[in-house]
Amino acid sequence: MDLELTAADLAFQSEVRAFLDQNLTPELRAAGRRLTSVFVDRKYSLPWQKILHAKGWVAPTWPVEYGGAGWDEMQRYIFSIECARAGAPSLAPMGLRMVGPCIMRYGTPEQKSFYLPRILSGEDYWCQGYSEPGAGSDLASLQLRADSDGDHYVLNGSKIWTTHAHWANRMFCLVRTRFDGQPQAGITFLLLEMDTPGITVKPIITLAGEHEVNQVFFDDVRVPKTGRLGEENQGWTVAKYLLEFERGGGSAAGLQASLRRLRAMAQAEPGGQGGALIGDPAFRAKLAAAEIAVQAIEVTEHRVMSALSAGKPPGPASSILKTQGTEAMQRIDELAIEAAGYYAYVDQPEARAPGSNATPVGPDHSLIAMPRYLNNRAGSIYGGSNEIQRDIMARLVLGL
Ligand SMILES: Cc1cc2nc3c(=O)[nH]c(=O)nc-3n(C[C@H](O)[C@H](O)[C@H](O)COP(=O)(O)OP(=O)(O)OC[C@H]3O[C@@H](n4cnc5c(N)ncnc54)[C@H](O)[C@@H]3O)c2cc1C
User: Which of 16, 129, 276, 390 could make a disulfide contact with 159, Cβ separation 3.0–4.6 Å?
Assistant: First the structure.
C-alpha cells in the first residue's frame, strides 16, 4: 500500500524506528529473521513481550481501558510494518490475540482484573485446547468430559495438536458438560492451570523435526468452576467469538518481509538472464503474482483492523484473511525453495539457532527455506482449515 503519511504519522514512524533500534538486540532480530514457523520460541518472544509491555505497546488492538496502546489504525499499521522490517520476533497469539478478547467480552470483573494484566505482561503463557483426536473441523463433536462435582468440574479425555502446551502455564479449553441434545448446546469454555494434577503433556514432532504441538491427556483433573468463561453449556458462543480472532492469520507486513527476503535470494542465486535467478522471466512472473496476492491481503487486513478499532469483532473478513494469508505464505515458501535450489535440502538445525556460531553450509537464507516450507504446510489446516473458511465465506459473505 502506498502510504500518505502526515507529519504526525512520520513523527510516530521515527519514534517506532528509534525504539526498535534501541531495544531489538541482534539475538532478538535473528530469532525473528530465522523463524521457521508461525510461532517464535518462547525464549525470544517473552523477553520481547516484556520490553513492549514496559513501553505500553504490547497490545495495539486492545481497548485502552484494558491496556491497549491507544493508537489509530494508521499507527497500528506503521508499527506492524516497522516491526516486520526490523525483524522483530512475533508474540505468541494465544493470550494476546485469542483468549484476551474473549475475557474482555465474556469474563466476570474478577476474571478480567486477574487474567488481562498477566496476559499483557507475559506472566501467563496460554495454550488452546480445542481440537481432539475425533474433533477438528467438526469441533462441536468434542468429547472431553467435564462432570460437575460441587464447586469443581472433573475432566477426563484428551486434546491434540495443542501448540506450546509444553510451555504454557494456562490453557483455555472446550469441554463437554452435557451429552444429550444438540452437540453445540453441551459445550462449556474453561480456563485452567496446566500444573493441575492429572494433566500429562506428550510431544508430537513435526515433519520439520520441531516440537511445537502436543497431545494433552486429562485424568480426573479437578478444575474450579470459577475458571468457567460464560455460562455452563454456553461455551460454543465464546468459542466461535475466539475463532474470529484466531483466524486473523499472517500479517501483510510479515508477508512483505518474506517477499523482500525472497527477492534478495533471487538476486543472489544463479539462474536467469544476467546470471541471477531474478533475470528469469518465469520466476519473475511467479514473484509478481505473489506480490499481487500480498497487496490484496493488505486491503482485507485494513478492513479487519478498522473493525477491531471500532470495537467490533472482525466477522467473516477474518476467514478471507486467513485463507489469503496462508496461501500467499505457502506460495512464497515454494518460490524460496526454488530459489535456494539444492541448498534448501540441507537440514541444519544447529546453524539455524539465533545465537549459533555454527558455520552454515550454503547461503544464510537457505537455512530456513525448507523447515519454513514444511512447517507452513500446516497453515492451511490450523485455525480452521481453508476448506472450512471457504465454507464460512460462502455462507456469510455470498449468502449461499
Ligand atoms: C501446526 C498445527 C497447530 C495446531 N495448533 C492447535 C492448537 O494449539 N489448539 C487446537 O485446539 N488445535 C490446534 N490445531 C488443530 C487444528 O485446528 C485442526 O488440525 C484443524 O481444525 C483440522 O482438524 P483435523 O486435523 O481434525 O482435520 P479434519 O477435520 O479431519 O479435516 C481433514 C481434511 O478434511 C477437510 N474437511 C473436513 N471437513 C470438511 C467440510 N465440512 N468441508 C470441506 N472439507 C472438509 C479439511 O479441510 C481437511 O483438509 C493445530 C493444527 C496444526 C496442524
Answer: 129
Rounded to an integer, what distance in angstroms lies between the CA atom of residue 316 and that of residue 244? 8
Residues 6 or more apart in contact with residue 183 via CB below 8 angstroms: 140, 141
Report which of 194, 65, 59, 66 is spatially closest to residue 125, judged by C-alpha positions. Answer: 194
Integer Cα distance of 128 and 174 in angstroms: 9
> Residue 128 C-alpha to ligand 1 middle, in angstroms?
14
CB-CB contact of 92 with 51 (8 Å): no
List the grid coordinates of 256.
Answer: 512483505
Query: 3-state DSSP: the chain helix, strand, coil percent, rounded to 5?
Result: 55, 15, 30
Mean pLDDT of the chain: 90
| Average pLDDT of span 89-108 | 94
Reply yes or no on whether 338 is catalytic: no
Percentage of the chain surpassing pLDDT 70? 96
Nearest-atom index, ligand 1, CA of 128: 9
Residue 145, strand partner residues:
156, 176
User: What are the pLDDT digits (tens) for 144-168?
Assistant: 999 999 999 999 999 999 999 999 9
For the record, the C-alpha cell of 247 comes out as: 483466524
- Given pLDDT bands bounded at 50, 70 and 90, which one contains residue 127? very high
Dig out the grid coordinates for 329 from the structure: 505464505
User: What does the pLDDT look like over 29-85, one tens digit per residue?
Assistant: 988 877 887 788 899 999 999 999 999 999 998 999 999 998 988 898 899 889 988
CA distances from 321 to 140, 237, 247, 249 (A): 23, 22, 7, 7
Q: How many Å from the N-terminal Cα to the C-terminal Cα in the chain?
A: 32
Residue located nearest, by CA, to atom 32 of ligand 1 = 137
Q: Is the CB of 215 under 6 A from ligand 1?
A: no
pTM across the whole model: 0.91
Q: Cβ distance 394 to 382 under 8 Å?
A: no
SS3 of residue 310 by DSSP: coil
Contacts of 381 by beta carbon, 8 Å cutoff, 6+ apart: none
Q: 126-129 and 170-176 as β-strands: parallel, antiparallel, unpaired?
A: parallel
User: Contact, 125 vs 155, CB < 8 A?
Assistant: no
Closest to 165 (Cα-Cα) out of 196, 209, 208: 196
pLDDT at 309 (0 to 100)? 63
